[in-house]
């Protein structure tokens, strides 16, 4: 049985992720059906990010959980989503670890997008020879492989409910799927260190690449600035999205440190910080990329060649 707080939690979660799934599916359709030939190399990054967002949203809905800080460095995951009835604790743990993996993967794809854009405008001209699409797919595949060990570590660090946490969770429904982890487990420490280091380092690299992009754009012709300016703007706004995750980590840290403990902090990391980017990312692309925005304003996309 779920209580009133759980119901509100699920309603907000379903609302955010339901909208995210619909918007991302729309973006995927537009990318597949309406992307001009000259833009298809860069569209691979957009397509990967859209699929990542859909996967994250589905995992978040199925594996909805409330996190609770317990004594002796333990954290419990009380699964209130549909994973309990569909696949039990295995599916719930899979969904929880998948969210961490996909968030990190989204950061990798965004970083690659900046690198690709910097490579494209290196000559200072609007039209350049684009990398083959196979090469771009290989970059994305490498990103998936590089992050995958942390998915495995995350899965292995989540443990089934046992006597180690049973005493602290007597008030919860015995039918609920409950997993827990030990904060000082080597696997948890490895994941935490990677997330804590990788997220700010990636954002710093993106800001450096953004500054380089803007410098190059200022030396380009007006036509070149128009070609690339919208993309740089969209990428700039996407840099801000990971801040939601960082704020959620801060809320969890405050709760764990017992400075302020309560349901709001325990749910904040799941509801807001981890899910808002799945909706914000496709909206940014639909709003700021002219080729896709024109789908909503014109019956046919302009025939002029573009570089994206």
TrEMBL record:
Please tell me one Gene Ontology term that the record gives under cellular component.
Answer: membrane
Out of the domains of life, which is the source? Answer: Eukaryota
Q: Which UniProt keywords are given for this protein, alphabetically ordered? A: Membrane, Transmembrane, Transmembrane helix
Topology with respect to the bilayer: Multi-pass membrane protein
Q: What SUPFAM superfamilies does the annotation carry?
A: Family A G protein-coupled receptor-like
Major localisation: membrane
> Which protein family is it in?
Belongs to the nematode receptor-like protein srd family.
This chain's protein is named G protein-coupled receptor
- Organism field: Pristionchus pacificus (Parasitic nematode worm)
């Amino acid at each position: 049985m779920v209580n009133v707080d759980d119901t509100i939690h699920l309603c907000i979660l379903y609302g955010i992720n339901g909208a995210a799934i619909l918007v991302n599916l729309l973006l995927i359709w537009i990318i597949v059906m309406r992307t001009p030939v000259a833009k298809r190399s860069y569209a691979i990054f957009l397509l990967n990010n859209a699929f990542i967002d859909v996967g994250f949203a589905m995992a978040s809905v199925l594996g909805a959980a409330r996190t609770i800080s317990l004594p002796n460095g333990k954290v419990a995951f009380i699964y209130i989503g549909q994973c309990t009835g569909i696949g039990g604790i295995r599916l719930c743990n899979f969904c929880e670890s998948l969210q961490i993996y996909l968030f990190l993967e989204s950061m990798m794809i965004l970083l690659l997008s900046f690198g690709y854009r910097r490579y494209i405008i290196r000559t200072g001209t609007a039209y350049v020879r684009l990398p083959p699409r196979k090469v771009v797919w290989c970059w994305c595949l490498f990103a998936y492989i590089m992050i995958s060990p942390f998915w495995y570590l995350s899965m292995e660090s989540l443990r089934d409910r046992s006597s180690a946490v049973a005493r602290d969770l007597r008030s919860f429904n015995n039918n609920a799927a409950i997993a827990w982890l030990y904060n000082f487990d080597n696997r948890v420490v490895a994941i935490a260190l990677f997330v804590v280091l990788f997220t700010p380092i990636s954002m710093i690299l993106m800001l450096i690449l953004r500054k380089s992009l803007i410098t190059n754009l200022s030396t380009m012709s007006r036509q070149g600035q128009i070609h690339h300016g919208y993309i740089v703007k969209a990428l700039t706004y996407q840099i801000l999205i990971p801040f939601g995750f960082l704020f959620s980590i801060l809320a969890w840290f405050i709760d764990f440190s017992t400075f302020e403990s309560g349901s709001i902090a325990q749910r904040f990391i799941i509801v807001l910080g981890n899910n808002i980017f799945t909706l914000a990312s496709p909206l940014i692309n639909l709003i700021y990329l002219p080729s896709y925005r024109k789908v909503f304003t014109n019956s046919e996309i302009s025939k002029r060649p573009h570089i994206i």
